[in-house]
Prior knowledge:
Elements: H1 2-10, H2 17-51, H3 59-84, H4 92-97, H5 101-127, H6 132-148, H7 151-189
Helix pairs in contact: 3-5, 3-6, 5-6, 5-7, 6-7
Amino acid sequence: MNCEIEKMKSYSYVVPNDFRKLYAGVIFDLERINSEIDLKLECVHIHCLRLTPDEHLTPVIASQMLKEQAQIEADDILHELKETSSENNLDVEELAQEPDLIPQKQKYHDLIVSLMGLLIQFKNLSESEVNAVEIQAINEAMEEVKQRLNPSNLSSFQSDIEVHLQYIQTMLSNYGNLQAFLNCSQCRAT
């Protein structure tokens, strides 16, 4: 119908009223069908939400949750390491005598937790199906790590760490979770 009306307009023919009515009827039918499809899709969406209530998280919330879970796990690992370590560089009495060290120590602790959280996210990515939410969470975590770094260390991080993490991320995204590491081990073997 569109072709016919285009021909008529290009030849400067007058579009007959019967054709206009027929065309308008088709458009109304399509609109009604679209409305019915929207209703059905909404019902399907509601049904899916009932079946899997946790899966309806928005990508932003899911991304934030992945980062927080990795940071909690990293903080737990760091806490366990501190407890099992027999050697502490600073004890409580030294901190009480030098209160200026407390914020700096917390800053380093937060940076270590962020870096460990990033590595845990990569580990989780390699153990599961690659999806956009996990990739987004890794990219956001990497940006947060860069923001925590001293500006003088940023270029070192970008050239020595970020490049390699992006390579691993690309390999995982392109080839799946095992292929990225299989290719690397095959390269070393040859």
